[in-house]
């Protein structure tokens, strides 16, 4: 917080609402600020007034009272009829825009506000002291609670000036003046509503019993104002700060419009005092801001226009194109063909499912038979064991039988080992057979999908309409020749596929040749279009030259008409003068009068002739322009017909 307060105090002078004071120079007609004790800090020139919504209120009575009276005198001066005139051209000198200390005078005795706070209560005083102490510590003002409890005049002055500087960093304290002369003006400048209740004599001993509660309440009010200003400055996104750099490109808030208007007026005001009468840069900056604001809307409008043009074009195409019934019938035929193919694939998959089900049933039956055989062998072994136990044999027979038993046991073990090896081999072969069968089925599925993709499912196009290229795998057969069901691969399927591939290559080559022909025709059409464009440009140049000649003829005719009119006027004056002279001198000047009349008729005829020539030249040029337009229209129609025929 201390770092933020340090930065805020180093910023340009601002009022308690964070409005940056303008550095606008004062006009020469404005009065200098007097050096009296009454000083102002919040009446900076053209300061922005924070925006308060209609009906809005503040929880702080003093703060809201201050906002209700925060009227900038410089902005008030704009309503004067002489605003905007330079001092040299004003008919009457404009008064100072600074109201001075008079506007900040406290209310009269009948309007003095009574402090509603319980400032005489000990608990409330302790609370105010604690908040003042915490705020001073947070703003890096070195003071102890003991000093705040036993306040002196010097410490009170230092605290007061520190708190006022936080609320208004530009307040002009003067070290040459007494503190009593600065205390009341500062409170009145900050619109402290209870300043009239404070006596300057209390400042000599601010810690006395009768003065300290009121002075402590004033310090507490300054602390609250400092916190309010800090919170307001920290709200960087608050539009009422009216910071032009933080206005978004797209905005609709009236406060943003007011901020741009104020910035424009401020910059224009500075340019005006530098002698400018036209504010091109300010106009350009304002137009740029609103152009950015309207850029997205204009872009959306252009996109909507493009979409409208596309929609109209599609509508025209739909109106001019044929009914889509034929296309739908073709689509229906393709769908029916695909349905037949899918039914065939489904039939093959169901057949494969039945084969697998039968194979599983056979394997289960074989497993049951082998389990029954194993149980029988086990029962026979137990029976033989019982027989051996009941027999009465000699030792030699026992030895021989043991030897035979061991030999048979070894043989049995060998046979068991061989049987296990055979079983392992059989199982591995069954796994290999199963894997190869699955791979073969996948290959056949891929083959069927490829046939469906290239359109070779039955029925095939002629001359292969009697050939079925489908293959099915029969894993249940023991004959390798019957594993694949269908046509013979070597004799029928492979030659047929080769023939189909050759036909497709031939068709592709034909299509490529046709495409090359179409490209050549398009190149020719493009060249002809360029030639037509060249001819159109040449004709346009001729028309422009003809228009220039017509303009020259019109100007010459007008000039000659003016000269003729002037000559006619001169002749009329001479004729009037001759008539006057004839009346005075008799009939001797009759011949001169007739000569002047003859010259006048010649000038009139010359003017009429020039008018007729001008009209004929204009008609001729208009006729040539019409012929040119008709020729261009005919060329464009022929070009359009040619392109439509090519398509």
Give a verbal description of the structure.
α4 crosses α8 and α6 packs parallel to α8 (212-234). A two-stranded antiparallel ribbon has the order 1-2. The radius of gyration is 56 Å and the shape is flat. With 647 residues, it is an all-alpha fold. The protein has 14 helices and 2 strands. It is 67% helix and 1% strand. Residues 1-110 have low confidence and may be disordered.
Give the SSE layout.
Layout: H1 2-10, H2 61-68, H3 73-76, H4 122-138, H5 145-149, H6 153-167, H7 179-189, H8 212-234, H9 254-273, H10 280-320, H11 325-390, H12 395-454, E1 471-473, E2 484-486, H13 489-585, H14 590-646
Short description:
One of its GO terms (biological process) is cell division. This protein has 14 helices and two strands.
The percent range for strand residues is under 5%
Oligomer: single chain
Strand order of the largest sheet: 1-2
Structural class: mainly alpha
Shape: flat
Compute the average pLDDT.
75
Radius of gyration: 56 Å
Low-confidence stretches: 1-110
Counted by DSSP, the helix tally is 14
Number of strands: 2
Order of helices and strands: HHHHHHHHHHHHEEHH
Helix content: 55-70%
**Biggest sheet overview:** 2 strands, antiparallel
> What is the first-to-last residue Cα distance?
77 Å
């Amino acid at each position: 917080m201390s770092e933020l307060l340090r930065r805020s105090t180093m910023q340009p002078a601002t009022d308690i609402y964070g409005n940056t004071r303008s550095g606008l120079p004062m006009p020469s007609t404005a009065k200098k600020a007097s050096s009296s004790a009454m000083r102002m800090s919040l009446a900076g020139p053209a300061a922005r007034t924070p925006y308060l919504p209609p009906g809005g209120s503040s929880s702080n009575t003093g703060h809201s009272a201050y906002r209700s009276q925060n009227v900038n005198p410089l902005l008030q001066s704009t309503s004067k009829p002489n605003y905007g005139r330079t001092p040299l051209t004003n008919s009457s000198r404009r008064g100072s825009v600074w109201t001075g200390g008079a506007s900040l005078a406290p209310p009269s005795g009948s309007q003095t506000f009574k402090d509603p706070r319980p400032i005489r209560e000990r608990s409330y005083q302790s609370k105010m002291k604690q908040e003042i102490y915490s705020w001073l510590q947070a703003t890096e003002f070195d003071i102890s609670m003991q000093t705040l409890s036993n306040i002196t005049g010097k410490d009170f002055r230092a605290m007061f000036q520190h708190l006022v500087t936080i609320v208004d960093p530009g307040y002009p304290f003067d070290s040459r003046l007494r503190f009593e002369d600065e205390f009341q003006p500062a409170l009145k400048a900050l619109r402290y509503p209870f300043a009239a209740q404070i006596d300057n004599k209390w400042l000599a001993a601010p810690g006395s019993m009768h003065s300290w509660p009121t002075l402590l309440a004033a310090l507490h009010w300054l602390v609250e104002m400092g916190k309010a200003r800090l919170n307001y400055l920290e709200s960087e996104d608050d539009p009422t700060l009216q910071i032009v750099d933080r206005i978004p490109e797209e905005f609709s808030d009236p406060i943003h419009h007011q901020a741009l208007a104020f910035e424009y007026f401020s910059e224009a005001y500075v340019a005006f005092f530098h002698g400018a009468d036209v504010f091109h840069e300010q106009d350009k900056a304002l137009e740029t801001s609103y152009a950015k604001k309207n850029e997205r809307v204009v872009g959306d409008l252009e996109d909507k226009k493009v979409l409208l043009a596309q929609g109209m074009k599609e509508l025209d195409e739909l109106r001019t194109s044929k009914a889509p019934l034929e296309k739908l019938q073709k689509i229906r035929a393709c769908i029916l063909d695909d349905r037949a193919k899918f039914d065939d694939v489904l039939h093959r998959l169901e057949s494969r499912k039945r084969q697998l089900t039968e194979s599983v049933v056979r394997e289960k039956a074989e497993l049951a038979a082998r389990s029954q055989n194993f149980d029988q062998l086990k029962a026979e072994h137990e029976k033989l064991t019982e027989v051996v136990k009941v027999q009465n044999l000699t030792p030699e027979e026992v030895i021989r039988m043991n030897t035979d038993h061991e030999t048979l046991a070894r043989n049995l073990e060998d046979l068991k080992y061989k049987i296990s090896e055979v079983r392992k081999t059989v199982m591995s072969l069954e796994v290999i057979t199963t894997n190869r069968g699955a791979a073969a089925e996948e290959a056949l599925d891929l083959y069927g999908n490829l046939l469906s993709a290239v359109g070779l499912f039955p029925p095939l196009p002629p001359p292969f309409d009697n050939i079925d290229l489908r293959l099915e795998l029969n894993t249940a057969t023991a004959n390798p020749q019957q594993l694949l069901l269908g046509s013979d691969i070597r004799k029928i399927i492979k030659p047929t596929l080769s023939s189909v591939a050759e036909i497709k290559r031939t068709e592709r080559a034909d299509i490529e040749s046709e495409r090359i022909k179409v490209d050549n025709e398009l190149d020719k059409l493009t060249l002809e279009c360029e030639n037509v464009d060249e001819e159109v440009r040449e004709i346009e140049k001729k028309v422009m030259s003809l228009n220039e000649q017509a303009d020259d003829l019109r100007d010459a005719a007008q000039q000659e008409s003016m000269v003729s009119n002037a000559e006619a006027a001169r002749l009329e004056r001479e004729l009037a003068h001759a008539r006057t002279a004839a009346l005075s001198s008799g009939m001797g000047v009759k011949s001169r009068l007739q000569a002047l009349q003859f010259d006048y008729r010649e000038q009139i005829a010359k003017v009429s002739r020039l008018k007729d020539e001008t009209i004929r030249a204009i008609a001729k040029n208009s006729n040539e322009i019409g012929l040119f337009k008709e020729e261009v229209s005919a060329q464009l129609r022929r070009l359009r017909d040619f392109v439509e025929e090519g398509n």
